[in-house]
Amino acid sequence: MREIRIGTIYPATTGVLPAFLARIGRKFPDIRLHVSNGSTADIIRQLECGKLNLGFIRPVENIGSLRFFSIAHERYLLAVPMGNPLASRQEVTVEDLRHEKIIAFKRQNLSYTERYFSETFAEHGPNDNVAYTCDDTFSLISLVSSGLGIGFAPEWTGELPGRDVVLKKVTGIDLKIGLGVAWSKDDPTAARDDIIDIAKTLGRPGR
Predict the structure, then answer these.
(1) Predicted TM-score (pTM) above 0.85
(2) Pick from 34, 79, 136, 186: most CB atoms within 10 A?
(3) What architecture does CATH give domain 3-72+178-200?
(4) What's the average model confidence in pLDDT over 41-61?
(5) C-alpha distances in Å from residue 8, one per residue of 45, 114, 137, 193
(6) Statement: residue 158 has pLDDT above 80
(7) Strand (E) positions, 82-144?
(8) Residue 106 — very low, low, confident or very high, per pLDDT cuts 50/70/90?
(9) Mean pLDDT in residue range 129-139
(10) List of E strands, the chain
């Protein structure tokens, strides 16, 4: 039985990936599908060395010899703990953030889109208020949920269970993070038009 090996970052597992697996399963019932989780950087490395056939990843500045097709965009929203006064505000502005403790990603861990977000926030927001930094989105949401501060996170985090966090749009900040599928043009499995076409049908506009 032939196997397709798929690498995915966590955000893809809540919507894009299940739809893709269902469509592949219907079209190719004799194919075994193996799914593994990882970071965008890890998935790119495994695609390059042939350990994976397809990868659902964030856009990066340099993807080398791989092919990439963008299928989704999500907004960055402000994650606020339930007990914070901002959680009940009808409208939140950048000025409202100037007296809050900020939780941010470390610069060296940012993808291209997240780096753009960081630069934009540095221009408009209270960078001097950054009290905590972390490597990943789960850590950021956990810190916010604990009441330690506020921070920007992609909107898929609103689907995480058991988090005392509210996501708020900040007036004047409209930033999005991408999601797409990557594959090697030299991979005979991934390069099949029918498989890539199924991945491309998963495209959806940002919410």
Answers:
(1) no
(2) 79
(3) 3-Layer(aba) Sandwich (3.40)
(4) 91
(5) 13, 18, 15, 20
(6) yes
(7) 92-93, 102-105, 130-134
(8) confident
(9) 86
(10) 3-8, 32-37, 54-57, 66-81, 92-93, 102-105, 130-134, 151-154, 165-168, 170-171, 176-184
